[in-house]
């Protein structure tokens, strides 16, 4: 698992500088996890205690509506963080499910440890603020493209955000993320 | 303007505890601003250097698409923060316009001062992380309601997020925020 922690260190050091001691202290709060393809690591209704840094592999966060239709909230791949953040933050039951689309290696961090580390280490609070700001700005793009009903720019954003995704998941999942039918997706893709 | 700063202090103290000295130091970075109804405080294409804490009044952040249709990204009222955050963060020209829908009192904070204060005061970085987390979670709700094409829940979210809005703005603006026609809005409202 040394490799997993090296990947985490490179990820953190994109935004902050850490001494070896600081990094080791951070690491002591992360639990390595490996899951097989298709494993559901979070079910709707579960209590959510953790978030995950994706070292390797691909996951989807989704919900299924009353008509049985699946809506994809997020894909998560290498260097992404994933959880049901609404449930994690408000300590309410999960509304999303999270499923592995490939074999995955994760580093698990509990909500209480995220907050403890933020409170103990100003640098880590800074890192966390910057990461959630990026998430907020990505969401802003997604809302505007949805409001403008502009499937083409949603498709372009997806290619930008997840460059390798198109080779890694079935077209039906891409269509569900963008919020269009598979027929519309074929037109965007061509 | 003492009242404006008291409102800011109450807002900050919902999340952090400040000594008088710390609060005075923070305040020295905020500029009070007053604008008349209809004033446009940011135009698309402008360089964005500031964000604003809303002390009193109501604003809209919006963009106009190629067909001249207005899309509302956000309303901002008392105790909200407002800017074109994409442009502010990436230091690119504004894509949004921000207009006062009422007479407003604002406290202006520059992007460089936000970052300076976050770096100098761990407490303020914590406050900022919590605020952007709330913004991210609100966006998550909005994306899911847009993807599910569920105008009724978008309307309910709007009522929850901005309880007094419905009495303060024309119906056409509400419809634009939710992304429905005025006819559809009348059905949701009834």
Automatic annotation (TrEMBL), chains A, B:
InterPro entries: cNMP-bd_dom, cNMP-bd_dom_sf, RmlC-like_jellyroll. Pfam families: cNMP_binding (PF00027). Residues 14-117 form the Cyclic nucleotide-binding domain. It comes from the Bacteria. Gene3D superfamilies: Jelly Rolls. SUPFAM superfamilies: cAMP-binding domain-like (SSF51206). This is Cyclic nucleotide-binding protein.
